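Collaborator request, handled under Task 6.
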Amino acid sequence: MLQTVSEPLFSKVFVTEELDARPAGQADFLKEKMALQDLAARLVGDPEGVLPRFVELAMQMTYGDAAGLSIFEPDGNVFRWMHLCGSLAAFEGATTPRDYSPCGITLDRRVPVLCRHPEWAYDWVADANIALPEVLLVPLFVGGQDPVGTLWIASEQDGHFHSGHSRIAAELATFVGIALHVKRGEDRLRRALEMQETLTREMNHRLKNLFALADGMLRQTLRSSATKEAMAESLSGRLHALSTAYSLVLGQGSQAGILDLTKLAEAVISPHVDDPARFKMEGPRLSCKETAASSIALVLNELSTNAAKYGALSADSGTVSLSWFADDARVKFFWVERNGPAVEAPTAVGFGSRLIEATVVRQCGGSCEVDWEPGGLSMTLSLPRSIFED
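C-alpha cells returned to the collaborator:
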C-alpha cells in the first residue's frame, strides 16, 4: 500500500527555504579545496574508499552528528543505507522506501533538501526510535544524470544547517558524481581491452588450428590424388567445408564458438544434393563447439562428396539419410546410403579413413564404424557429449 504525507505535515517537515534565511558564516575555501584534493587522491590510490571518505568529509565540513548514503536499488524500489558514520552508524545496511522517504523527495526534486524531525512524517523513522532535529539531503548523480541515491547529514540541533552547508555538500556530491562517472568509464575501457586481448588470443589459437588442419589436408590430398586436377577438386571441397564451418561458428554473435548442428549439416551437404527429396536429416537440436564443428564439417563433406561421385547420390534412385541421437555420454550419427551402385570395401586406406582418424578419433575422442553394404555405405560415428551443448 502506497503511503503519503499530508500536505500540512509535509510543509512542517520540509523546510528547505530556511537554508537561505539563516546566516551562512565565513566560508573556508582552503578547507574545501583540501577536501576535494583528498577525494581526488583517494580516487587514484583507493577507489573503494572514495564513498566512505566522501561521507566522512561531508559530515566534518558541515559539523553534523551523523551522515551516510542512501543508495537507490531499482529492483526493490528502496534505498539502502551505506557508509554510515557518526551516531547512526549502527543502521548500516538498513533499507527505506523509495516513494515514502525524504531521500525519495530529494531525488525527485534533484536539489538539496532540508527537513526537520522526519519521524513526525514517516512512521518507519519513528519505529526505529530515531529522532532527528534536522537532516540535510543532497542528491548524488553519476555524471550528472544517473541517480545513485542521496547523501544525508543529520544534526542533533534545530536550526543547524544553512546555505553554506548545502553548497559544500552539493559541491562534494558533484565532484564525487563526476569522479564515479570517470571511474566507470575507466572500468568499461579496461574490460573492453581485456576482452580484446582475450579475443586476440582466441583468434591466434583458431588460426594455428586452422593452418595445421589445412596443412594436414593438403598433404593427405596430395598422397591420395592421381592428378593435379583431382587434387585441386578434392582440396577445394574440403577447404570449402572447413570455411563453411568457421563462417557459421564466427557468425553466432554472442554465442561465438557454438554452432547449431542442423545448420552446419545443411550448409555442408546441400551443395552435393541435386534433389532435396533424396536427402533426409533428423535428430534432436544440438549445438556443437568449434572443435566438433570443424571435424563434423570435414567428415560430412567427405561423405557427401563420395556419395555424389560414387555412391547413392550418383544414381537416379539413390537416397541418403543422416540422423543422430544423444544420451548423457555420447552423440551418435548414422549416415545411410540406399539404392545406389554396388559398393565394395576399399583395399587400401583412403583419405576418408585417415581424416576420420585425425579428426573424429584423435582430436575429438570419438569412434567410427563402417559397413559396406550392397545397397550403399553405412557409417556410424560416436562423439563425446562434452563437445556438444543442448
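The cover message to the collaborator said: "The chain has a mean pLDDT of 81. The CA atoms of residues 140 and 174 lie 7 Å apart. Please let us know whether this matches your experimental observations."
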